[in-house]
User: Fold these one by one.
Assistant:
Number 1:
Amino acid sequence: MQMQNGMSEKDVVNMILADEKRTAGEYATATLEANCQTVHSTFNQLLQNTLKTQRQVFEVMQQQGWYSAPSTAMSQDVQKQVQQAQQTKQQTDQFVGQHGMQTSAQQSANGSVNAAVMQEMMQNSSQAQARNSQRPM
């Protein structure tokens, strides 16, 4: 079915779905960054409403046959991705442990970040900035 502007109904609904997805992402960011509880709650409610609308649009598209679900992944592929994620987490944990860093959960529990680590990070950042400023353009 063609609409007056030359776009099909499927194209219009597809644009609406894409817009809902984009809006949800923006509301999620705003919710996370809000420092006032009232603003946080407002954006969170807007996010929930947008997610509900997005789901409704998705369901209409799926019923019309306009949105095909991605092909199912092979169990072996999923397991491989899980193993890679676990290895990355282990490597990250080892790195953090070797450098005396704390995870955000540990920081919250302890109430502060290791000052020596922060000083080292700032020093490394300053050195990197100095190297970058010496590069020819």
Number 2:
Amino acid sequence: MTVPKVFIDQNGLSEGSQVELHLLGKKMTVEAPTRPRYKLSDLMAEMPEGLPRIEGWDEMPSVGLENG
């Protein structure tokens, strides 16, 4: 099935995106499901004990562009 580019752009879709098809008699509609939006503060509030700590993390050498 070919989907109009304007529909793809308006809904932030890309190749492989999943959409919902709704059938009513001889009509079929396509709906792009809404994606949840998260706030960092809400996600952090759900963590039971704050940020998890990894033993030795601060002593690990840089492996990328962490310091650049």
